[in-house]
Amino acid sequence: MKGIACLVLILILFSAGNSYSYSKKDFKAFGIQELKEEAPNFTIVDPNGKRMSMNDYRGKAVILHFWATWCNPCKDEFPLFEKLYQNFKDREIVFLPISIDLKADRKEVEKLAKGYGLSCQVYLAREGDVTNRYWTWGVPVTYFIDKKGWIIGRALGPRDWASDKFNEIINSLIEDM
How much is the pTM? Predict the structure, then answer.
């Protein structure tokens, strides 16, 4: 009986870990660094002044995307990021494009993002503590956070957000639980 209890415990421990339908090969092919760490909580303010935190998004996948108004690769990838947003906006995923600009005000940041085709809400890093929790040495940088609140990957630099392969990766992030 003791042996069966041990076996059951081992099976529970193995099945409790994060398992995803994407492969390390997919991440590597898309230039995503695989991570497996709990996502630090942070706060950020929406345009209406409401304070939100990472904990508010538990149960949903999160794409945490850092960018800046002065970053040309960021501007170039916005139309592709918009396609990704349009493909998944009605699913269990949250898109948080966060500007790290220190001098640009909210109107300037929003105008630039919309001018480059981004329709989802943008946020300012300085209106919260997100950059204290997520270190970025350059932009764009994107974190992929699963429904359980674990960072599963990070992409440094621009990506082809509209590619079929990337859509598969996002699907696996949403579907796995």
Answer: 0.83
